[in-house]
Amino acid sequence: MEWVIVIVGTFLAMAMGSGVVKLFQGRKRAAGLVSPTGAKVQRQAQRVATRLFVEKDLSGGPRAGGINRNPADVVLTERELIVSTGAGAVLIIDAARPGTAKATGPKRLIVEGRHPLRDVNVRAELLVDEPEVWAAGVAAL
Fold first, then answer.
1. Are 62 and 87 in contact (CB under 8 A)?
2. CA–CA separation, 46 and 68 (whole Å)
3. Of 45, 30, 47, 36, whose CA–CA distance to 87 is shortest?
4. Is 46 helix (H, G, I), strand (E, B) or coil?
5. Which range is least confidently modeled, 7-11, 36-40, 109-113?
6. Residue 59 and residue 90: Cα distance in Å, rounded?
7. b vs e for 121-141, b when ≥16 Cβ sit within 10 Å of the residue's Cβ?
8. What's the structural domain count of the chain?
9. Which pTM does this prediction carry?
10. 3-state SS assignment for residue 140
11. Contact 89/111 with Cβ under 8 angstroms?
12. Residue 98, domain extent
């Protein structure tokens, strides 16, 4: 009987731990979407399917040499494009940090730029509605 209590307790602890991690990742992703300039939002997409490629490992985030599949939130404002995952803001394109965006197919947008805090190139493949409009918005930055 004692081992049943241990097993049930272990599963409950694992479930609670998983919930805390998901809550932390959601808050970190949302915090990355706050525009540092306070610019007006033009387009926004939440929890879009994303593949991230980075040239160097980012601590607590994407790893180099592999495909990092993460849901991401994307915001296009008058002054910047922000891509944010559970690791926080992983890509910001603005006047100080130039980048590119290309619509390569239906619902497929490829964004390339630099990580906002580290000297790392980042490529994000996003599945968004109207990728041509997103690409045109990035080109106008």
1. yes
2. 17
3. 30
4. strand
5. 36-40
6. 12
7. ebbbbbbbeebeebbebbeeb
8. 1
9. 0.73
10. coil
11. no
12. 2-139
